[in-house]
Recover the amino acids of this structure.
């Protein structure tokens, strides 16, 4: 079955007279690692909110994990996972409590949670005790654990919003190995990042500028298209090419 | 897909959050108990220890008998003899007596002659409810006294005249308006400054302000003065509304009232600054401000429940509630028309409170983050 | 040789049970652009708070422009421009109102500081009446920098000024810092982005409250103990897997398009290493892969030094 994991067609969102997302269209295949890049205020967060069923589009449509975000938003949310830099796990709960919480929220039975949790922690080679408070974990462990917990209910698509912000370089790379492992198992990974070396790790990526998709393709294709050596230069060329209004996208 | 495990999981998480936030948990458990105790002990619809003064121009057996009756009743606290009715007026204004019973001159002769004898009962009716209750008690004693006199004589005609002082029409609004001014001032000063200061800290701009030539006290004064202006504007508007809409009487000096209001507002501001200095978050500051100011100011200030009716420990506690003294001042000025000569003790107490709170607030305000 | 702008000696600071700074020593020369580089939790913000006199060290000492951070705090507070993380600005005031406020707090005015902040402020001046809360991340950053500069400080302390801001704004920001440094201002900025760090005169690598190394960016790279190679051209996952299986591998990490590889054997010449590796990869059916020697960068050295430090992220 080769239906794309995410399909967006002319997806649009306006806030009053301001158009945050302007008729964007793209597809993401199953098991792909898709990078979603763009400056702050370019409309990334709004687009992600629509795809995760949190915000209704003004125009256009999209399906995520096979469900329409307009008519079946709750079914979309059952089939996806989410992790962001700002919020991942509850600081004042232990590791085990966090795992049980997320498992429970997604409807997993206790024994199933225990089984998957053991497998997950084994794969992570998780050394701290499961009774440790999350706030006591080093940042690197927090982020890796948060990612794994987002995958606990085996979602079809996982959305990662700047998951490696502020993390040390070794842990960053370990995190991306986790991403590859998940993709290899068939999970589609939709990730945003400000690290342009990480953009290279994606199968394909899109760059949003002022609410529109200004570039879409593999890293190699984009570099060829703009005749530059690095994605950094692609980004700069695109961002400088447009007149920015300075307004922040809500 | 059943939602039940999800709901249970979520509820379990919320319980854990609640149990682990020790500070908030303590407040949420202790506050209702405190309220219960306060309500239980402070709320008194029956009145004890009514201070009664008997004005008897001449001492004779009948007036002595009346005095003894008052003294022996459970509810009255008999004050030393008052020779003239004028002195009674002064005592009422100072708030030193609740009920005055004025006996006519030549009481003994009149009684013997069987003449109509007028007895005047004057009650402090600032609180119209307690005023009428006290009056009822006094009349009951008078009846007993009358019956006892009548048993020994043939015809005793005693007419009681009743006067409610300071609140002749028994308006509740007259009782509440002074207290309301106190509450509004407290809210604008303590609550808002505590929140404003702790929000600055949470926002992170406080850090930048500290790393500048500004001393912390300058930052605080700068933040606090607009609230003082706002508070005074509130006082003026409440007074205008009370006067124009509810026709609350205004017997005394407006400038004294405004000065006292400013003093009370400053006390509230100092307390707000202190709260912000000792709490860590906006939420804690707000809870502390509500619990530490609004609660005592409603329950323990004499706003609703008279202080004299509270059990002794609570009465002692009310001494440190600034609103208690402020309400006495405002009621005195508005309803009794008294001035500095009578109210200087209360004003002095408020000034001392201000000095203490300011010193504490300054000490606790750090020139660094830690 | 003028006196150093900042001297830190053996500063330790612990919060409860967590040590934020462990015996940190460093110095910053006058007129230098110094970078504090490290991930979250390295102690960068705590270091800034000690230097701005907001925190008192538990042990050790620090002086800023010759003043002791504990005793002479008021002297330091007048001559430092501080920009804490997350851009402390008043969201409900306009751009101009924010700037005017911070100028007045230092007893000066926008006009007095205008020529210094002009290159930065001019970019946001068209939005001067807009509420600061409605600005984009890049604009907020420029406003916060203007507010820190308007009183003409002698030293600028910027705590993660580019975090959470897109790549273009980041570049522009460092261009601005270059210009400011040219005017003689001493600047200390912290960043978790290693590529930005190469724009500094000198950098200090920090991890878990300790300083791993301090030197000019190029020299930091030179601290990498082995020859480094860039391997690229083939499928990344397979390249990494094969490299990690290589018997002489010391490190193999992805770096964007390429994989950085270093060999354990210090005695062999780079040429030998390159040839042997290429042969090995050809056998593993990765003939299209090319191996070229490269100069190690800051990130390479950071990861190497991290591995030696006891409390490495697992």
């Amino acid at each position: 079955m080769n239906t794309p994991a995410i399909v967006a067609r002319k997806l649009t969102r306006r806030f009053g007279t301001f158009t945050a997302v302007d008729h964007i269209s793209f597809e993401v295949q199953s098991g792909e690692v898709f990078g979603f890049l763009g400056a702050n205020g370019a409309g990334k967060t709004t687009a992600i909110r629509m795809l995760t069923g949190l915000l209704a589009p003004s125009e256009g449509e999209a399906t995520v994990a096979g469900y329409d975000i307009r008519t079946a938003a709750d079914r979309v949310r059952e089939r996806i996972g989410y992790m962001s830099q700002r919020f991942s796990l509850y600081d004042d709960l232990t590791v085990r409590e966090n795992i049980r919480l997320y498992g429970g929220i997604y409807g997993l039975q206790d024994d199933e949670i225990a089984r998957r949790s053991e497998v997950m922690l084994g794969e992570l080679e998780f050394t701290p005790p499961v009774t440790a408070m999350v706030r006591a974990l080093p940042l690197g462990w927090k982020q890796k654990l948060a990612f794994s917990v987002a995958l606990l209910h085996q979602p079809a698509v996982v959305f990662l919003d700047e998951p490696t912000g502020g993390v040390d370089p070794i842990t960053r790379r370990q995190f991306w190995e986790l991403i590859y492992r998940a993709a290899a198992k068939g999970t589609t990974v939709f990730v945003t990042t400000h690290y342009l070396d990480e953009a290279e790790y994606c199968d394909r990526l899109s760059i949003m500028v002022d609410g529109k998709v200004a570039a879409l393709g593999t890293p190699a294709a984009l570099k060829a298209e703009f005749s530059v050596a690095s994605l950094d230069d692609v980004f700069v060329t695109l961002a400088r090419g447009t007149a920015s209004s300075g307004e922040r996208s809500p | 897909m059943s939602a039940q495990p999800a709901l249970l999981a979520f509820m379990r998480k919320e319980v854990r959050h609640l149990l682990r936030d020790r500070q908030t948990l303590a407040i949420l458990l202790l506050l209702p108990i405190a309220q219960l105790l306060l309500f239980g002990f402070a709320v008194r619809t029956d009145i004890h220890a009514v201070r009664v003064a008997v004005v008897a121009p001449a001492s004779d057996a009948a007036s002595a008998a009346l005095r003894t009756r008052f003294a022996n009743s459970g509810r009255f606290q008999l004050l030393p003899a008052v020779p003239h009715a004028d002195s009674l007026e002064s005592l009422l204004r100072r708030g030193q007596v609740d009920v005055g019973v004025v006996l006519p001159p030549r009481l003994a002769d009149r009684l013997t002659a069987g003449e109509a004898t007028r007895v005047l009962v004057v009650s402090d009716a600032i609180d119209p409810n307690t005023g009428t209750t006290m009056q009822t008690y006094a009349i009951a004693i008078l009846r007993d006294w009358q019956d006892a006199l009548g048993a020994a004589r043939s015809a005793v005609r005693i007419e009681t005249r009743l006067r409610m002082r300071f609140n002749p029409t028994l308006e509740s609004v007259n009782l509440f308006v002074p207290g309301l001014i106190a509450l509004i001032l407290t809210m604008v000063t303590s609550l808002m400054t505590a929140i404003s200061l702790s929000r600055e800290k949470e926002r992170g701009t406080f850090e930048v302000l500290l790393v500048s030539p500004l001393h912390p006290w300058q930052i605080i004064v700068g933040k606090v003065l607009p609230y003082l202006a706002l508070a005074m504007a509130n006082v003026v508007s409440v007074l205008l509304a009370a006067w124009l809409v509810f026709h609350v009487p205004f017997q005394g000096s407006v400038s004294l009232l405004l000065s006292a209001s400013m003093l009370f507002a400053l006390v509230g501001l100092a307390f707000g600054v202190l709260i912000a200095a000792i709490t860590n978050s906006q939420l804690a500051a707000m809870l502390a401000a509500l619990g530490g100011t609004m609660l005592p100011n409603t329950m323990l200030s004499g706003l609703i429940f008279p202080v004299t009716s509270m059990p002794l420990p609570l009465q002692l506690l009310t001494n440190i509630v600034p609103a208690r003294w402020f309400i006495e001042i405002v009621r005195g000025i508005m309803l009794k028309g008294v001035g500095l000569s009578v109210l200087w003790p209360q004003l002095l107490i408020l000034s001392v409170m201000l000095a203490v709170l300011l010193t504490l607030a300054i000490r606790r305000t750090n020139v660094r983050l830690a | 040789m003028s006196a150093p702008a900042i001297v830190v000696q053996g500063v330790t600071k612990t919060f409860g049970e967590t040590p934020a700074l462990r015996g940190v020593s460093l110095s910053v020369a006058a007129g230098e652009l110094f970078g504090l580089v490290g991930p979250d939790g390295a102690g960068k913000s705590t270091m800034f708070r000690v230097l701005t006199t907001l925190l008192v060290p538990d042990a050790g000492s620090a002086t800023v422009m010759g003043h002791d951070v504990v005793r002479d705090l008021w002297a330091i507070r007048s001559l430092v421009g501080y920009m804490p993380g997350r851009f402390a600005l008043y969201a409900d005031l306009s751009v101009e109102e924010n700037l005017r406020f911070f100028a007045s707090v230092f007893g000066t005015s926008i006009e007095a500081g205008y020529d210094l902040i002009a290159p930065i402020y001019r970019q946001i001046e068209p939005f001067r009446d807009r509420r600061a809360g409605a600005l984009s991340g890049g604009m907020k950053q420029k406003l916060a920098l203007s507010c820190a500069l308007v009183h003409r400080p002698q030293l600028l302390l910027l705590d993660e000024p580019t975090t959470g801001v897109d790549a273009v704004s980041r570049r522009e920001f460092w261009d601005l810092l270059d210009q400011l440094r040219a005017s003689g201002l001493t600047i200390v900025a912290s960043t978790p982005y290693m590529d930005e760090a190469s724009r500094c005169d000198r950098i200090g690598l920090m991890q878990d409250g300790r300083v791993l190394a301090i030197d000019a960016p190029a020299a930091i790279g030179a601290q990498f103990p082995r020859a480094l190679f860039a391997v690229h051209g083939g499928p990344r996952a397979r390249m990494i897997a094969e490299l990690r299986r290589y018997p002489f591998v010391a490190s193999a990490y992805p770096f964007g398009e390429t994989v950085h590889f270093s060999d354990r054997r210090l005695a062999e010449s780079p040429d030998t290493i390159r040839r042997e590796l290429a042969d090995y990869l050809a056998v593993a059916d990765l003939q299209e892969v090319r191996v070229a020697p490269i100069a190690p960068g800051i990130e390479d050295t950071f990861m190497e030094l991290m591995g030696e430090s006891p409390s490495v992220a697992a």
In short: The longest strand of chain C covers residues 18-28. The first helix of chain C runs from residue 44 to 51. The interface with chain A takes residues 38-41, 124, 126-127, 130, 134-139, 163-169, 171, 192-194, 207, 236-237, 253-257, 299, 302-303, 306-307, 312-314 of chain C (CB under 8 Å).
